[in-house]
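Progress note, sequence design subtask.
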């Protein structure tokens, strides 16, 4: 694993504007966030994307969701900064190098 990763793991956390009394879908900028995710999936940039929550769609710990982006970490961080819920403060996203293991 001497090469720089070409994929990134993005962990999605509640931001300072997160309303803990509401599920993800009821958060301010939720519709914009879901549209942003759909664009990344449709473009093939998001290889995996999904929420992490309890059966009632409330937070489980401090993690809201995760993404695997087909971008190196710097470009992935630039892209996540464009999510409307990140811009609005409802979410924060941390980007990590992700060494995806390919089948032989």
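Output:
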């Amino acid at each position: 694993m001497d090469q720089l990763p070409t994929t990134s793991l993005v962990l999605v956390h509640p931001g300072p504007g997160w309303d803990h009394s509401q599920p993800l879908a009821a958060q301010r900028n939720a519709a914009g966030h879901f549209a942003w995710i759909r664009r990344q999936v449709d473009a093939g940039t998001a290889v995996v994307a999904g929420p992490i929550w309890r059966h009632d769609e409330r937070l489980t710990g401090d993690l809201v969701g995760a993404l695997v982006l087909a971008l190196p970490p710097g470009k992935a961080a630039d892209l996540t900064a464009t999510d409307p819920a990140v811009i609005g403060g409802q979410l924060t996203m941390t980007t990590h190098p992700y060494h995806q293991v390919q089948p032989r």
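The chain is about 25% helix and 25% strand. Work on this subtask will continue into the next period as scheduled.
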